[in-house]
Amino acid sequence: MDKNKLLAAASAAMLLCSCSSAEDSSSKDESGYFEMLGEAFLEAGNVSEAVTDFSALSREKHGYGQGIQLDDKNRPAGALDFNSVYGKYSAKAINETEDKTITLTFDQGYENGYTAGILDTLKEKNVKAIFFVLQDYAEKNPELVRRMIDEGHTVGNHSVSHRSVPGLSEAECREEILGLHKYITDNFGYDMTLFRPPMGEFSELSLAVTQSCGYETVLWSYAYADWDVNDQPEPSAALKKLTGALHSGAIYLLHSVSKTNAEILGSFIDAALAEGYTFV
């Protein structure tokens, strides 16, 4: 989306909010502001054909996983099925392309001392990634978030407080997404457009609300057990898993708290490039 349009949309929403009377402002919480902000982003064209009638949408919680079943192109059936069912809500778990591309993503729940090294490796290899941050992470590590932005990476929205979004009301879901959006815009001058729901949990309703906020939902087509800092995978075995899972349109989820990931990232990038893949 055109950044000027998004900034104009945000400004319009803030102007609308400021035009309300002091009496009205004191009696309202921020939900009205977040609703107007989402509508302004939507009007600016961040996503198209968004669902606006939520009344018939299911609130049933789903926990996403790509599964172990693969097609003849090594693509996980779970990711393809997710796209097929939920793509209408600007949601995806895989990029459906024949091109040998990989989107590298990191979830930034908290800082464990490895992100700077990960950024060093990405810079050395000239690879860009998506970093999905929480508000607490951004507040505690502004220098790392600034570096992500300055070095051309994409900063994604992982919510304000890591609450499971399918269990929230529509207003609470908006606040989790647009509250962090406002924080990042205010503090870094950067507009996020991609959302990854905490724990990969979603409902049809939460995906539609996310879309109505002007966001795309991005899950993943490959992830492995890398998040337990006290039980890290053995590096050579982990590298074998990552390279063995290569497939066109892949979206890899890695956790930056992982010592193993920091160690093998450069080798994984080299191996993928050697197989003819490009990072997008």
CATH level 3 topology of the largest domain: TIM Barrel
Mean pLDDT: 88
The separation of the N and C termini measures 17 Å
Total number of helices: 11
Based on secondary structure, the structural category is: alpha/beta
- Biggest β-sheet, characterized? 6 strands, parallel
Regions with little confidence, pLDDT below 50 for 5+ residues: 1-28
CATH superfamily of the largest domain: Glycoside hydrolase/deacetylase
Whole-angstrom Rg: 19 Å
Concise account of the structure shown:
The protein has 280 residues and is α/β, with parallel strands linked by helices. It has eleven helices and eleven strands. The chain is globular.
Structure write-up:
With 280 residues, the protein is α/β, with parallel strands linked by helices. It is 45% helix and 13% strand. It has helices at 3-18, 22-27, 31-43, 77-86, 115-125, 135-140, 142-150, 170-188, 204-212, 235-244, 259-274; strands at 62-63, 91-92, 101-108, 130-133, 154-157, 194-195, 201-202, 216-218, 222-223, 250-255, 278-279. The strands form three sheets. Strands 3, 4, 5, 9, 10 and 11 form a six-stranded parallel beta sheet that branches. Helix 5 (115-125) links the parallel strand 3 (101-108) and strand 4 (130-133). The longest helix has 19 residues, at 170-188. The chain starts with a helix and ends with a strand. Residues 1-28 have low confidence and may be disordered.
